[in-house]
Specification:
The protein is globular, with a radius of gyration of 24 Å. The chain contains 21 helices and 20 strands. The strands form four sheets. Strands 11-16-15-17-18-20-19 form a seven-stranded mixed beta sheet, with helices on both faces. It has a six-stranded parallel beta sheet with strand order 3-2-4-5-7-6, sandwiched between helices. The protein is an alpha/beta fold. The protein has three domains: about 170 residues, Thiamin diphosphate (ThDP)-binding fold, Pyr/PP domains (Rossmann fold); about 130 residues, TPP-binding domain (Rossmann fold), CATH 3.40.50; about 170 residues, Rossmann fold. Helix 1 packs across helix 2.
């Protein structure tokens, strides 16, 4: 006879979920105990709940399948919320298992009692509370099915403690047949095919169309129609570097984003939502396209992207002989001398290993660092999607666990990294092959820029104190060492090149603190 927790662990395995990012507490102890009977379940301890959900997000982006998280009551779920928001915007599938008080204890106002359902309904696509131990297995299977639905969803199973410890009969197998995703009509496909042949038309792609074979097929559609191929600013995953199909990616600042679309006659959306400015700014529009430019939804991110892009390719006459415009390999020389962000980008572009995974949350520094990598060796880039800070380090953790044979490079600002620096400990414990590059610009530089964007022409001491992370100065070499990760500080271009080359030629985690001023 097994208990509810044991039935859930076995159900997850039966459903192909073999990785759980966990931050358990008392109400999850029976789940933890059940892991001892199932050593084939890879349970990764994270020291902060936002690390669990960020890791599960990165895992899905690279594995294209779901992992679980194990969270402790409403406060733990609340700590996990920000990176669940990012995961939802990324279209990542995640199964949250949230322990709750035993059903007979919930009538009392105990210290950790909270509104788990309220938190879940704000970020999850699917939520269920197991009412008894006998229900846990089927509920768990339904949670996995929901997480895999519509190309990836957030599902949350709330497990009262007594449903975990009471007897259960058996585990559950995978539920039902594979979901049939929505597909556009033949008329919509034909209309899009005609629209893309008109002058200055654009095809904006997202989701699985941004990497792998579908990216190449999108490039062939662009070649066959003469349309412009676009991607939005914040994307979950995109193929970059040599051999990838050329496309234009929208920038973050709203004024140059508007300029990018100035002459666009129409935008057809395939696997992505309509582009929108990150914030509202005085005197500036919320959407970047010209007023005369229609934006047409052909295929939503939750629709059948693969079928749609193949059907569109057929409609525009793509054949095996249709060629695409591919990015050439053009590795820059490694610079020396005084360190700058441009030199960091050139060095990174020269040294990125083929098939690497780059997680980018460097924001302001990234504006200068990322462009040179466009012609680097082929790699995948994972970026922020929901704008909630603290994604990079846990996302890199999940990506490394999903793809243990690939090098992972994490680019983060010092302010952003402080949100989830506990992920360094998990990297060390799991001996993950991740090189973390922290840009120590000593503050939230993006906020200084945003102050200007909203029309504030000058600011004083109080405002400045909200933007910097000085006094005391963050010491990332010491922070890395304290979490079990070797760290080094690069203060000139030669030192950075040596540190990066050393990190990428060895296995296991490492951290490089980059100390250089932002361009004026």
């Amino acid at each position: 006879m097994m208990n509810g927790a044991q039935s859930l662990v076995k159900t997850l395995l039966n459903n192909g979920v073999d990785t759980v990012f966990a931050n358990p507490g008392t109400s999850e102890m029976h789940f933890v105990a059940a892991l001892d009977q199932h050593t084939d379940m890879n349970c990764v301890l994270c020291l902060f709940e936002g690390g669990t959900t960020g890791a599960a997000d990165g895992y899905f982006r690279m594995k294209r399948d779901v992992a679980g998280t194990l969270l402790h009551l409403a406060p733990g779920f609340g700590n996990a919320f920000a990176n669940l928001h990012n995961a939802r915007k990324a279209g990542s599938g995640i199964v949250n298992v949230v322990g709750d008080h035993a059903t007979h204890h919930q009538r009392y106002e105990s210290p950790l009692k909270g509104d788990i359902l309220g938190i879940s309904h704000a970020v999850s696509h699917w939520t269920r509370v197991s009412s008894s131990a006998a229900d846990v297995a089927l509920d768990g299977s339904a949670a996995v099915q929901a997480a895999r639905s519509q190309n990836g969803q957030i599902s949350t199973l709330v497990l009262p403690a007594d449903t975990a410890w009471n007897p259960a009969s058996a585990a559950a197998e995978r539920l039902g047949a594979q979901e049939i995703l929505h597909r556009p009509s033949p008329e919509d496909i034909e209309a899009a095919a005609v629209r893309l042949t008109t002058p200055h038309a654009a095809l904006m792609i997202g989701g699985s169309a941004l990497f792998g074979p579908l990216r190449e097929l999108a490039g062939k559609i662009a070649s066959a129609t003469g349309c412009r191929l676009l991607a939005d600013t914040l994307i979950p995953r995109i193929s970059k570097g040599a051999g990838t199909t050329r496309l234009d990616q929208l920038v973050y600042p709203v004024t140059p984003k508007i300029a990018q679309l100035k002459d666009t006659s129409s935008i057809t959306l395939l696997g992505t939502d309509r582009p929108v400015a990150f914030f509202a700014y005085p005197g500036k529009p919320s959407v970047p396209e010209p007023s005369h430019c229609p934006v047409m939804d052909l295929c939503a991110p939750t629709d059948d992207i693969e079928w749609t892009i193949q059907s569109l390719a057929d409609a525009v006459g793509v054949t095996n002989k249709t060629e695409t415009q591919a990015v050439p390999l053009d590795l820059p020389a490694i610079p020396s001398g005084q360190l700058s962000l441009e030199k960091v980008g050139l060095t990174l572009a020269a040294l990125i290993p083929e098939n690497a995974i780059v997680c980018n949350e460097s924001v302001t520094s990234g504006f200068h660092v990322i462009p040179p990598t466009a012609t680097a060796r082929p790699h995948d880039l994972l970026a922020g999607t929901g704008g909630a800070i603290g994604l990079c380090l846990p996302c890199a953790t999940g990506a490394a666990i999903a793809c243990p044979d690939r090098k992972v490079i994490a680019l983060t600002g010092d302010g952003s990294a402080m949100y989830t620096l506990q992920s360094l400990w998990t990297m060390a414990r799991e001996n993950l092959d991740i090189t973390v590059i922290v840009f120590a610009n000593r503050g939230y530089q993006i906020l200084r820029d945003e102050l200007t964007n909203v029309g504030v022409e000058s600011f004083g001491q109080n405002a400045q104190a909200m933007f910097d992370v000085e006094n005391p100065m963050l010491d990332w070499v010491s922070l890395a060492k304290g979490h079990g990760v070797p760290g080094t500080r690069a203060e000139d271009a030669d030192g950075f090149a040596t540190a990066l080359s050393t990190a990428l030629s060895s296995s296991g985690p490492s951290l490089i603190e980059v100390v250089c001023p932002l361009p004026a």
